[in-house]
Amino acid sequence: MSNTITYQRKLIEVETRLGFLYVPAKARGLLPSQNGEVMVLLKNSTNPQIKKYNADHNRIFGMTAFYNELGVKERDILTVEVTQQLITISTKEVEVIEDSEENNQEDFIDTSGLSAQSKGNIGEDRVKEIILLYSQGLLNVFKPVIDERGIDLIVLKEKIYNPIYIQVKTRFNVHKRNRMILNINGNTFKEHHSYYIVGLSFNPTKMEMDEEILFLPSKDVTKLASSLSNGDYRITISMASGKTTGKYKKYFVSKEELVNKLIERIDLVNEIVN
Questions:
Q1: Coil, helix or strand for 128?
Q2: Edge-to-edge, what's the strand order for the sheet holding 49-54?
Q3: Where in 62-109 does DSSP place strands (E)?
């Protein structure tokens, strides 16, 4: 392998917006094999700077100041010279010779550093916020002390003591795979008229949960989900642009509709009980 690799790259929108530079396969052999630091220099400058390099996703971060200094934007072309010691960047209006391995549609927000517990907490907190905000205080939300029983949140309406039990499932890879896959623990699952599965999809381009939320009665889980050999249930929903047209379509609601359905369900149970 040569000690120097030179290539041209046409910047895509997300690189300039988030301030990173994607490194193609031809140059990766000269960069660290693990996450670390690299030295980056603007051509005709004498002061290289230390930048973070993510070897898992082949990106050099912290490039916003360089892009501003170069005055570049989306679709502008950079000439990049890579050695093991230094990466030198300049602008040059030439035909791009690099075969791009990425495009503007790819998800660039990396959530791999978050644990499953952290992601679950984010989803539960988001559901709590939605219920409290959209119900304007009419509903309250409680979290069980023991969180290993398949119930993440308990919802009560003011002065009515017939709760709704919710298991929250949050998925951070739906937009990349166009599928929402939810696994329900068969050991803790028991269908009940007041027990629901709420499924959230994280949108990496908006850094927010999608507007459409799965609101699935537990009694329909056994009818629609696949039964796994270990006793668990798997819900697989084909999605595109955060929506589904399959058998689960009728179970997707907006944030406001989610709260309205909770209120309706509590009122209905209260009428039956009383």
A1: helix
A2: 5-10, 77-82, 87-91, 36-42, 49-54, 59-61, 20-22
A3: 77-82, 87-91
- CA–CA separation, 59 vs 15, rounded Å? 9
Round the average pLDDT of the chain to a whole number and report it: 85
**Considering the domain 116-273 in this protein, what is its CATH number?**
3.40.1350.10
Query: Is 256:191 a contact under the CB 8 Å cutoff?
Result: no
H helical segments located in 135-254: 174-177, 218-224
Break the chain into its structural domains and give their ranges.
5-91, 116-273
How many residues are present in the chain? 274
pLDDT at 53 over 60: yes
Q: Which CATH superfamily is domain 5-91 in?
A: DNA-binding pseudobarrel domain (2.40.330.10)
pLDDT band at 41 (very low <50, low <70, confident <90, very high): very high
CB burial of 7-38 (b: ≥16 within 10 Å; e: otherwise) equals bbbebbebbbeebbbbbbeebeebbeeeeeeb
Predicted model pTM: 0.59
CA dihedral 255, 259, 262, 267 (to 10 degrees): -150
Residue 230, classified by CB atoms within 10 Å of its CB into exposed (0-12), middle (13-18) or buried (19+), is exposed
Strand 213-217 versus strand 208-209 pairing type? unpaired
Q: Are 8 and 96 in contact (CB under 8 A)?
A: yes
Nearest residue to 140 via CA among 155, 130, 161? 155
Strand pairing report for 5-10 and 195-203: unpaired
Element (H, E) at 59: strand 59-61
Q: Give the integer Cα–Cα distance in Å for 43 and 38.
A: 16
